[in-house]
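Quick review question:
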C-alpha cells in the first residue's frame, strides 16, 4: 500500500500502480524479511510470460515499496537492497522511414494520427506528447515542462511548418492509454505489428542523421543528457560508410590495375 500511495505522485500513476499490482499475489505470501524468496518466486513464475524489462518494472515497484517501509521505520533493515533485477537485452533496432510512418498514421484515428506526427516531428516520447497543454505552445516553440519529461529537465522544441497542422489537436482528446491502444490497432492494420510508439522517437533521430544533421543537434532535439545515448543511432547510417568504402575500393582497383599494366619496351635478345 505504501507504493500505491507513492505511485500517485509519479508521472504515470496508473502504469506504476499496474506494475505493482501485477505481483500482488506473490507479495501477499511473504514477509519483508523473506524478500529474496519472494523475488525468486516472482521471477520463476513470470519468466516466459513477461519480458525481463516488464518483470523488472514490477521488481522496481517492490524495491521502492520496501525502501519506503525502511524510511518510515516499519522494517528493522532496508530489505530493498535484496531485490536484484534481471539482465535486459531489449535495445530496439526498429527504425522507420517517413513513408512507413505515413502508412501507420493513415490507419490511425484522428487523434492518434496527430500524436504519431507530433512524436516524429519533435522526437517527443508518448508521455510528453500526451502532456502538452495549450499554454505550452508558443509562437515558435513547444515548452516541455520538467515534470513531464523522462529526465525531469525542461526543454523547448522548435515548431517547424510541417508540425503546425497537428498542433490544433493539442491537448489530445485521448489519454496515454488511448494513444497506446490506438497505435496498436493502427500498426496491426498497417501490417507492422512489431512497431512500438517509441520507435517514432528513434526514427526521428535516424532520419535526422540521414539528412546530415549534426549529432549534437540531434542530442539536443531528443533531450538526451549524454551524447553517448545519441551515438547509438549512428550505426544505422550506412550510406556514409558505403561512400567511404567505395573510395577505398577504387584506390584498391587503381593499385592493382597499375600492377597489371604491361611495361613499355622489351628486353633485346
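Suggested answer, residue by residue:
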Amino acid at each position: 500500500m505504501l507504493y500505491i500511495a507513492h505511485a500517485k505522485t509519479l508521472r504515470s500513476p496508473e502504469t506504476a500502480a499496474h506494475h505493482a499490482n501485477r505481483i500482488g499475489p506473490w507479495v501477499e505470501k511473504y514477509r519483508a524479511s523473506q524478500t529474496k524468496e519472494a523475488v525468486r518466486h516472482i521471477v520463476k513464475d513470470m519468466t516466459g510470460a513477461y519480458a525481463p524489462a516488464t518483470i523488472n518494472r514490477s521488481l522496481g515497484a517492490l524495491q521502492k515499496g520496501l525502501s519506503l517501509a525502511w524510511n518510515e521505520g516499519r522494517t528493522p533493515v532496508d530489505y530493498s537492497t535484496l531485490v536484484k533485477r534481471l539482465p535486459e537485452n531489449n535495445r530496439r533496432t526498429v527504425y522507420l522511414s517517413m513513408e512507413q510512418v505515413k502508412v501507420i498514421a493513415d490507419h490511425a484515428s484522428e487523434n492518434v494520427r496527430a500524436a504519431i506526427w507530433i512524436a516524429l516531428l519533435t522526437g517527443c516520447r508518448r508521455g510528453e506528447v500526451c502532456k502538452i497543454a495549450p499554454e505550452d505552445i508558443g509562437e515558435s516553440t513547444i515548452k516541455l515542462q520538467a515534470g513531464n519529461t523522462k529526465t525531469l529537465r525542461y526543454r523547448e522544441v522548435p515548431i517547424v511548418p510541417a508540425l503546425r497542422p497537428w498542433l490544433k489537436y493539442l491537448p489530445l482528446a485521448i489519454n496515454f492509454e488511448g494513444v497506446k491502444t490506438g497505435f496498436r490497432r493502427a500498426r496491426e492494420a498497417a501490417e507492422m505489428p512489431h512497431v512500438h510508439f517509441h520507435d517514432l522517437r528513434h526514427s526521428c533521430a535516424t532520419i535526422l542523421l540521414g539528412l546530415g544533421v549534426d549529432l549534437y543537434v540531434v542530442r539536443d532535439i531528443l533531450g538526451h543528457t549524454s551524447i553517448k545515448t545519441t551515438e547509438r543511432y549512428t550505426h544505422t547510417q550506412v550510406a556514409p560508410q558505403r561512400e567511404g568504402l567505395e573510395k577505398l575500393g577504387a584506390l584498391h582497383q587503381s593499385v592493382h590495375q597499375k600492377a597489371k599494366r604491361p611495361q613499355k619496351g622489351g628486353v633485346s635478345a
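Why it works: The chain has 13 helices and two strands. The two ends are 103 Å apart (CA to CA).
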